[in-house]
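Service request form, structural biology core

Requester: graduate student, group of Dr. S.
Request type: structure prediction, single chain
Budget code: on file
Notes: please return the result as structure tokens.

Sequence provided:
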Amino acid sequence: MESGRSGIKILAAALTLSLAAGCTVAGNAAEDGKEQIVIGYQSKTINTVTAGTLLRAQGYLEKRLGDKYQVVWQDYDTGAPITAQMMAGKIDIGSMGDYPLLINGSRGQQSEQTRTRMIAVTGYNLHGALNTVVVAPGSPVRSLAGLRGKTVSTSVGSAAHGLLVQALRRAGLDPEKDVKVENQQPPVGASALQSGNVAALSQFVAWPGLLVERGEAEVLYDGGELNVPTLHGTVVRQQYATEHPDVVKAFLAAQQDATEFLWKQPLKAAEIVAGQTGLPAEVVYLYNGANGIATFELPLTSSLKQALRNDVPFLKSIGVLQGIDLDAFVDDSYLPGTMGTNGAVLSGTDPICKTPIGAGAGELWLTGEETTQPAADPACLLKAVKNAEKSGRQVRAAYVPDTNTGTRWFADKSIWVHDGTRFLPFTTRAAAEKYGKGTVINYEQAVAAA
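Core staff response, request fulfilled:
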């Protein structure tokens, strides 16, 4: 495996290239006789894949629209440039996270010509686990309190920034006085963490999982501890929706097509997204797979609407949002009439422990296998790993839910507690030590003891 720093440089270069590609493709002239629809998306923000990367790769929108339209896809690093292009009338439909969505809606409401509507959800987590604070491996910082007087990288105005501020406040720190915040894009922040220029990095999916999977970071704070919903969604220019309601409905029908594909074939969907983005499939599947950190469903439920409403005061407090009429911004009238419920859920019977799969299930992905193996609980997962290793089979990835938050994480990157016959995984060492019973052990020791 290449060194961590070179890996980050490669990914950063890929992000830069994709951003440049997104900026230039808008200038392409529409094909003869075809009307152009421009879609802005973030290929590596993988909780928007059903309105972006996966949707594009599967061609669902083109199939829904037919030959009358030419679909132009623009790939960006964050939601901010998508919003800027929408305000300029150069992007018709976009997808982004909750804070950028609110900023998009607020900016759009400054004039009748620039108004936008949030029309669907892509991926969400009701506890906030899509955002995570990480530190370098072996860092002396073991808790948020340890960040006092230190520098933290985040993307100001993002949900990851919101996580950082709220989590620091809960830890008794003043985010403005006790910590220096560097406003950096994710790849820049990742490099800053590796070089030691920042003590921690607070970012959104998929950066925390990517860095941890590569052994370049460890979790300091699991966003699920905050227990504040975070979501991603689809937004459209109101003027475009008024003039082309059938296209907007076709887009959402295609988004539902992509969502159902992800539900039914989550492993294949992760491989497709990995192939399109250069992200490891194991990282994509951590977030988007069965029992993944993200749940993919289109409806704008009351709990998610309330989550947006609760986000507004924070965005106002940091000066990136003047105000927004949420009732005018959120519009579910374009959604398809019938939609299923999330099917990417682990089920069946554990083949090792012979017990039904329920809450607290883990998952084992063996190299060369086209399907994964469910595990009824963390102990059963460790036994499955041990059996695989004894038979000479290579473990590609193993996933377990955090004992406290339920956040799904890599089993080999978790901190384990051996308490009698129980094996308890935690995403952070602080949480494992706070448990207060049993013995804190690493993954290898847990597998050996299973």
